[in-house]
Specification:
Blueprint lengths: L5 H15 L9 H4 L7 E2 L1 E3 L6 E2 L4 E4 L10 E2 L1 H20 L15 H20 L3 H4 L2 E3 L5 E3 H27 L24
Parallel strand pairs: 1-5
Antiparallel strand pairs: 2-4, 3-4, 6-7
Helix pairs in contact: 1-4, 1-6, 3-4, 3-6
Length: 201
């Protein structure tokens, strides 16, 4: 079996973790998207005098710095928009030479457009990583906080962030329904080494 490169393993981990988890936002409704399981709860809301958050338009993703202690619970909408925005920001800083921050983002309102943004951000990030080799993976790239760090650190951070928040989305959907559902398998084309089968000479 041919031994995969570090870049190949990391790229497939992104695809496997992100694309198979898309079932957790499949058929999401607007009511689920904005459901507030506790109070206080951060969400995606119209800008107003009592609403604090980031975004450049009429809608903001609630947030605060320094963060309150304890932190509010967050809605599925908040988690979707949080993931989509940070995925784009990490990619644009590291791979596109751009320097956006959260206050440049136009936050969409509504489940369909929010989920579409998340899926597009995932696809764009995976495409950027797919072009790397093992040398590039360990080269420094700019991060949004101003430092330059190894590319593998930036990519691994986004991988972990998605697994973390998408799992939370799944739990919130279970709580909203009042029960769990059978997990639907979403096949992702896998290389031979993933299943332990010979990849060639």
């Amino acid at each position: 079996m041919s031994t995969p490169t570090t870049a190949e393993v990391l790229t497939f981990q992104l695809r496997h973790a992100w694309l198979t988890a898309r079932r957790l936002v499949d058929d999401l409704t607007d009511e689920e998207y904005t459901w507030e399981p506790a109070s206080p709860c951060w969400s995606v809301r119209r800008r107003g005098p009592t609403v604090r958050g980031w975004g450049s338009g009429d809608v903001v993703c609630e947030d605060a710095w320094p963060p309150p202690d304890p932190l509010p619970t967050t809605t599925i909408a908040w988690r979707v928009i949080h993931l989509a925005a940070w995925t784009d920001i990490y990619r644009l800083h590291a791979f596109a030479g751009e320097r956006p921050d959260l206050n440049d983002v136009v936050v969409p309102q509504g489940c369909e457009v929010g989920v579409a943004w998340l899926l597009r951000a995932q696809d764009d990030f995976i495409a950027a990583v797919e072009g790397l080799d093992d040398v590039a993976l360990f080269e420094p790239r700019p991060a949004h906080w101003g430092a330059s760090v190894p590319t593998i650190q930036l990519v691994s951070t986004m991988l972990t962030e998605h697994i973390h928040h998408i799992a939370e989305i799944g739990v919130l959907r279970d709580l909203h329904r009042g029960h769990a559902t059978t997990q639907r398998d979403v096949p992702v084309e896998a290389p031979a080494w993933w299943g332990g089968h010979p990849a060639g000479p």
